[in-house]
Amino acid sequence: MKVFKKHDLDSAPKESRVLLENSQKAFGRIPGLHAVMAEAPGLLEGYQLLHKLFQESSFNAEELTVVWQTINVEHGCTYCVPAHTGIAQMMNVAPALTEALRNKGPMPTAKLQALHDTTLAIVRKRGDLSDEDLEAFWAAGYEQRQLLEIILGVAQKVMSNYVNHIAKTPVDEVFRKFAWQPAA
After folding, report:
1. Helix, strand, coil proportions of the chain in percent (round to 5)?
2. Domain assignments of the chain as residue spans, ordered by start
3. Residue 156, pLDDT score
4. What is the helix (H) or strand (E) element at residue 142, kind and residue range?
5. For 129-150, how does the pLDDT look when each residue is reduced to its tens digit (9 = 90+)?
6. Under the phi-then-psi rule, with left for phi > 0, alpha for psi from -120 to 50, and beta for the rest, what region is 170?
């Protein structure tokens, strides 16, 4: 079986080096996901841009976490769930919310539950939501913008979750204490 290369600043394709430098500056290290993505500079650049745009969306830290982790758990990404557990902690998201997401538990508020349910419906139904799905989202106080921003988050997470599945990216040392496996 072929092992996917984790690039550093010396081994990365020329077009990826500045992107890895950006990762180094932003995170104080090069995340394993970025090191793998560096093999395809366009993929890494696209991922970094989607990450930036999603973080700049209208969602607050709790809502970002709900969207990210809902997708990560649904996709069974053993790299991203621990990473976003650590990221949520850095963003001061309540540990109870993170644990509920990791363990497929109920959300602490009706609004976050609607966000979780809608994100899950988008992933499972490939965007083909029913009128009932949409009405529940609108009734929770969300607008069209937030629905479209979930799709932005899905695009970002598809890139990372799929790369991690294919490359079997090992969890970064800083996030190993948040290790996670999908329920059987």
Report:
1. 65, 0, 35
2. 1-56, 59-178
3. 98
4. none
5. 999 999 999 999 999 999 999 9
6. beta
- Which CATH architecture group holds 1-56? Up-down Bundle (1.20)
Q: Which CATH architecture has domain 59-178?
A: Up-down Bundle (1.20)
d(CA 147, CA 119): 9
Taking alpha carbons only, the member of 150, 84, 160, 105 closest to residue 123 is 150
Q: Is 112 helix (H, G, I), strand (E, B) or coil?
A: helix
What average pLDDT does range 13-23 have in this prediction? 97
**SS3 state at 42:** helix
Q: What's the pTM value of the predicted model, to 2 decimals? A: 0.96
Report the pLDDT averaged over residues 38-48: 98
At residue 52, what is the residue type? K
CB 22 within 8 A of CB 114: no
- Rounded Cα gap, residues 18 and 31, in angstroms: 14
Look at residue 103 in the predicted model and tell me its pLDDT. 97
Q: How many CB atoms lie within 10 A of CB 137?
A: 24
C-alpha–C-alpha distance, residues 88 and 61, integer Å: 8
Output the pLDDT for position 184: 77
